């Protein structure tokens, strides 16, 4: 019996895990791991301090000496001097993360590629060796495209505050569920498979990670790599974690429903807030209303919201996963019984047009009837207090 990617078992049986681990050890001893031919591509613009830390982590990795290639989008902070002094390859690229990574990948003829963001850290010295062994262990079992990603933990200023939020965000990255894999988790893939996918989409300055992740789901297989990597929580901490998470949810919902007009105008709104103390959501809600009123009209707007409802319904598992996170102090271990109930029972009941319509109404009421006016009041008051 097969299950869909990311489907959750009720309990993580400890005995079974030990047996699987022993079997993998036996396979690893007889299967020669890929320990060379790895190129790490790091897109960066003005990330000198982060690049120093990440390249040091890479150079301290045990059992492997990968190539490092910085795809620089026009840094003004001395990145080029640093790369020259440290004898690290640097490629001058036009700005745009997708463009930078594609151009860097074209310089590599074969082997494996690992794309990492500049604010990534590798806390364990054998992370890369274990990742390559894990990848080579799975490679013979898949004839199509195979890609790996790491679970992540956020590197934040205060590790003791908002534990529920961070635990919710971090543990999702250990699942192979659609829309839970992004560039912060890294991308390990062979050059041949990357070329076969056509590389990253360069149409926008963002979402290139989501688009290639979706293509891999459609045409190949994702695997979760062992160990975890650290990623900076700076955007959540400076812009507001709940505000940024809401904006990410809006972006993903509109992206998945083909709402292209939003993405042509939204980046300008985001750049306008570069020096703001907190991210303001009101301009993005206004943009949604503006596009729906001026370009779509009532009939097309209802159809668009129906697609949003269908997308939200497909992510109903996140509510059950959240309940499991709330119950963690009761469970006292990492198990997901509510998520298991969703995957094996509840989801079958809601995979229909009626559920899509109900979810559409709930999504519209929640985002446009609750979230929008609430943040309008909060941001209006903040602006008044700031004056």
Short summary:
This protein has 387 residues and is α/β, with parallel strands linked by helices. The protein has helices at residues 14-30, 48-59, 79-85, 97-106, 127-138, 163-171, 191-197, 208-219, 234-239, 241-256, 260-272, 282-314, 317-326, 328-331, 337-350, 353-386, and strands at residues 38-44, 67-72, 89-92, 112-115, 120-121, 145-149, 152-155, 187-190, 220-224, 229-232. It folds into two domains: 31-232, Alpha-Beta Complex (Spore Coat Polysaccharide Biosynthesis Protein SpsA, Chain A); 237-386, no CATH class.
Overview of this protein structure:
The protein is of the alpha/beta class. The chain has two domains: 31-232, Spore Coat Polysaccharide Biosynthesis Protein SpsA, Chain A, CATH 3.90.550.10; 237-386, no CATH class. The protein has 16 helices and ten strands. The chain is globular, with a radius of gyration of 22 Å.
**Morphology:** globular
The CATH class of the largest domain is: Alpha Beta
Low-confidence stretches: 11-35
CATH homologous superfamily descriptor of the largest domain: Spore Coat Polysaccharide Biosynthesis Protein SpsA, Chain A
Rounded Rg: 22 Å
**Biggest sheet strand line-up:** 3-2-1-4-8-6-9
Please report the distance between the alpha carbons of the first and last residues. Answer: 62 Å
């Amino acid at each position: 019996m097969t299950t869909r990617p990311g489907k959750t078992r009720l309990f993580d049986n400890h005995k079974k895990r030990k047996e699987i681990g022993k079997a993998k050890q036996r396979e690893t001893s007889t299967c020669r791991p890929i320990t060379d031919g790895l190129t790490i591509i790091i897109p960066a613009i003005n990330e000198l301090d982060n690049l120093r830390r990440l390249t040091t982590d890479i150079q301290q990795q045990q059992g492997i000496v990968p190539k490092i290639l910085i795809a620089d989008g026009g840094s003004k902070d001395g990145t080029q001097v640093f790369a020259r002094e440290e004898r690290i390859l640097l490629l001058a690229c036009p700005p745009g993360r997708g463009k930078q990574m594609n151009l860097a990948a074209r310089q590599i003829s074969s082997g494996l590629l690992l794309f990492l963001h500049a604010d990534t850290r590798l806390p364990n010295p054998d992370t890369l060796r274990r990742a390559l062994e894990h990848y080579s262990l799975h490679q013979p079992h898949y004839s199509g495209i195979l890609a790996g990603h790491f679970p992540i933990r956020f590197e934040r200023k205060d590790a003791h505050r908002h534990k529920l939020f961070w635990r919710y965000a971090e543990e999702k990255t250990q699942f192979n569920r659609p829309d839970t894999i992004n560039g912060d988790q890294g991308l390990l893939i062979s050059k041949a498979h990357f070329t076969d996918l056509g590389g990253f989409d360069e149409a926008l300055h963002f979402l290139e990670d989501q688009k290639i992740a979706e293509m891999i789901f459609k045409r190949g297989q994702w695997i979760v790599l062992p160990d975890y990597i650290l990623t900076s929580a700076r955007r959540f901490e400076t812009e507001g974690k709940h505000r940024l998470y809401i904006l990410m949810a809006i972006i993903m919902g509109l992206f998945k429903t083909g709402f292209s007009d939003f993405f042509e105008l939204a980046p300008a709104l985001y750049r306008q807030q570069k020096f703001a103390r907190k991210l303001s959501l009101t301009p993005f809600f206004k943009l949604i209303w503006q596009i729906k009123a001026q370009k779509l009209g009532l009939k097309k707007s209802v159809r668009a919201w129906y697609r949003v409802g269908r997308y939200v319904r497909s992510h109903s598992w996140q509510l059950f996963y959240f309940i499991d996170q709330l119950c963690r102090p009761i469970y006292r271990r990492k198990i997901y019984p509510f998520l298991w109930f969703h995957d094996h029972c509840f989801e079958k009941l809601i995979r229909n047009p009626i559920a899509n319509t109900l979810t559409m109404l709930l999504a519209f009421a929640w985002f446009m009837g609750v979230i929008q006016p609430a943040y309008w009041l909060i941001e209006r008051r903040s602006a008044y207090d700031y004056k």
